[in-house]
Structure to design on (229 residues):
């Protein structure tokens, strides 16, 4: 279980927060088992809050590495389960190297299913029957791999406008692959909305819009309700 009294312990973290005071960020990261990723320090908490805001149950990370973002994603999945009384929530991960992410997450009571395998070996049977709410793509950044993973797992993303695919390094090593995905969305091959966020390395958020009811109103004002427009 997470020790809520845990202090910042890693020398790199002490250096980071001593040099750049950020109490909110420090308070969230002090619970982590590894040091802060100083290249993309904001992405972990960002992903946590996105998964919480979307109410995701089934989350996949392609490229868990040492587990910096995995920790935040798995916590979000667990916290959604408790907050919304969801049964069977799970954080899934794939990475070619074993960095003991499964053990670290399990030791903290976080639901996880980590597969140590090359993403080239991913198939429709790897996560058979799992329908994902959120997929974070941050593994093999080659153009071929980025496109192949998207083509392979896009069908397993839930429909109805409630599920998201998030590409990392859209302004980094995955840029060409992400441009191909963007072009195919614009050409109508995949029914989706997307936005590219410009920051260090960048993110692209893709919302799957299959079977989405564009006429549905979520907030009906008196004007709209009376006119029907």
């Amino acid at each position: 279980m997470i020790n809520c009294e845990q202090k910042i312990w890693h020398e790199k973290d002490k250096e980071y927060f001593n040099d750049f005071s950020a109490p909110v960020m420090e308070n969230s990261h002090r619970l982590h088992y590894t040091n802060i990723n100083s290249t993309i320090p904001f992405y972990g908490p960002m992903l946590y809050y996105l998964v919480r805001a979307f109410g995701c149950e089934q989350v996949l990370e392609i490229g868990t590495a040492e587990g910096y973002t995995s920790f935040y994603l798995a916590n979000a999945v667990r916290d959604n389960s408790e907050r919304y009384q969801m049964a069977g929530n799970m954080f899934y991960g794939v990475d070619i190297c074993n960095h003991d992410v499964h053990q670290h997450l399990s030791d903290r009571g976080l639901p996880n299913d980590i597969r140590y395998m090359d993403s080239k070996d991913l198939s429709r049977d790897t996560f058979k029957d799992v329908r994902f709410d959120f997929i974070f793509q941050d593994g093999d950044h080659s153009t071929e791999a980025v496109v192949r993973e998207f083509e392979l797992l896009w069908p397993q993303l839930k429909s109805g406008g409630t599920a998201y695919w998030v590409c990392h390094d859209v302004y980094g090593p995955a840029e060409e692959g992400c441009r191909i995905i963007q072009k195919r969305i614009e050409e109508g091959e995949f029914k989706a909305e997307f936005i590219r966020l410009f920051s260090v390395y960048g993110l692209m958020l893709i919302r799957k819009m299959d079977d989405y009811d564009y006429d549905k109103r979520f907030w009906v004002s008196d004007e709209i309700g009376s006119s029907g427009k």
